[in-house]
Structures are given as structure tokens and as C-alpha cells.
Amino acid sequence: RKPLLIAIDGPAAAGKGTLAQSLANRLNLPYLDTGLLYRAIGKLMQIAGLDLDDPQAATVVAEKLTPDDLRRGDLRGREAGELASRVAVHSGVRAALVAFQRDFAHGPRGAVLDGRDIGTVICPDADVKLYVTASAEVRARRRTDELLAKGRMVDYEAILSEVKARDERDSGRAEAPLRPADDAIVIDTSALGPAEVLATALAVIENRP
Ligand code: C5P
């Protein structure tokens, strides 16, 4: 059987990353968190004092991005996510990242990729497309609890408005807006724990045509 390619999309904090990681472990597939690409570009621009809303400047940074840039320690936080969604609106930035993502997706061992446009733009040919979502309130609650558990001072209402702002930017942009592919299976994680989400996804994968 040919190697499996799994595309996972969905809004921020819906549980995509957790699911992608578990599927990759369980099925022994290489995993690419494509959000890291946009996060790294945002962070590099901020450090260089560049204007994140300048499409040309952002595209130059995207074209020079190397895998080493993804190993920075400060990419997973809220701030980098915010910077990422600002640079992700530029078509030049997105175009610069296509080849890297497709090469990863079509490696000899198959792959799991997660992001916003994997099923729609990067891998329309994926064997399985999952769209992982949850209400904004549930996502904000999870993110708040995660941060509280790390001992950080956070306010649920502030996180909720951040989540909603990011949804709006990601779904409202002209280029590769966030949306489920026509042939994606939607998994609403609002009432599911990580183990149930994984079981649901594994069932989808096993029962695919
Ligand atoms: O998934 P993550 O929260 O790391 O993504 C950060 C931001 O990067 C998203 O809000 C989105 O704007 C952008 N992104 C994207 N396309 C992807 C992955 C991430 O536009 N495939």
C-alpha cells in the first residue's frame, strides 16, 4: 500500500496539533506543523525590526527561511501566533512555502501535515482530510487552562477575543482562507477529549474508501 498522506486543518487551539502528533506517532508518519513556518517568519521579521504588514519584506524573509529557523525556542507562544497570522495573509509568503510543504508531504514514508490550507491548497491529493474544530469559547477555555497550568497570569476574556480575532483574520483573508476542503471530514472536538479525538480520526482513516 502506498504511504499515507494526512491533511489536518482547523482554527487555532482546536486540538489539531495534538491530534496530528498522536496520529504521526501511532501510524509512524513524519509530521510537519506548518504553523511553525509562519511563526518563524513573523518572529524573524520582528527581530529584524521589519514591518510585518509589508508584503515585499515578508516575502523576502519567507524565501530565505531554512529548516534551522524552525528550531527557535520561542515560536509556540501566543505572540508568535499573532505575528504568524499577520504575515500569513501575504500571497508571496504563502507561495514561498508551497514547495517545502509539498516536498515534505510527498516523502517516501508518507506524512501528516497540519495547518489552515493543507487540504485545500497544499495537498488537495491527500488520502485523508480532517477538519478539526471547536467553538471559540471551548478553544479559549482550553488555551486559558493550559496557560494557567504553566503558572501564567491570563484572562479568559482576553484569550477569547484573541481567538476570535485570529479566526477572523484566517477565515477572512483573500489568499488560502481557512475553510474545510469539500472532501474533508469535520471533527468537532468541543465535547471530546484528546483520546476520543484520536479514536475518531483513526476510525475515519481505517474506513476510508
Ligand atoms: O497553527 P498555528 O496556530 O501555529 O498557526 C499560526 C498562524 O499561521 C495561523 O493563525 C495562520 O494565520 C497561519 N497559518 C496559515 N497556514 C497554515 C498554517 C498556519 O496561514 N498552513
Automatic annotation (TrEMBL):
Localization (cell): Cytoplasm
Pfam families: Cytidylate_kin
Keyword tags: ATP-binding, Cytoplasm, Kinase, Nucleotide-binding, Transferase
Catalyzed reaction equations: dCMP + ATP = dCDP + ADP; CMP + ATP = CDP + ADP
The keyword Translocase appears for this protein: no
Domain Cytidylate kinase: 6-206
Source taxon at top rank: Bacteria
SUPFAM superfamilies registered for this protein in UniProt: P-loop containing nucleoside triphosphate hydrolases
Gene3D superfamilies: P-loop containing nucleotide triphosphate hydrolases
One MF term in the entry's GO annotations: CMP kinase activity
InterPro entries found in the cross-reference section: Cytidylate_kin, Cytidylate_kinase_dom, P-loop_NTPase
One GO cellular component term noted in the UniProt record for this chain: cytoplasm
One Gene Ontology term from the biological process aspect of the record: pyrimidine nucleotide metabolic process
Binding locations of ATP: G10, P11, A12, A13, A14, G15, K16, G17, T18
NCBIfam families recorded: cmk (TIGR00017)
Family as reported in the entry's similarity comment: Belongs to the cytidylate kinase family. Type 1 subfamily.
UniProt-recorded name of the protein: Cytidylate kinase
Organism lineage: Bacteria, Pseudomonadati, Pseudomonadota, Alphaproteobacteria, Hyphomicrobiales
Gene expressing this chain: cmk
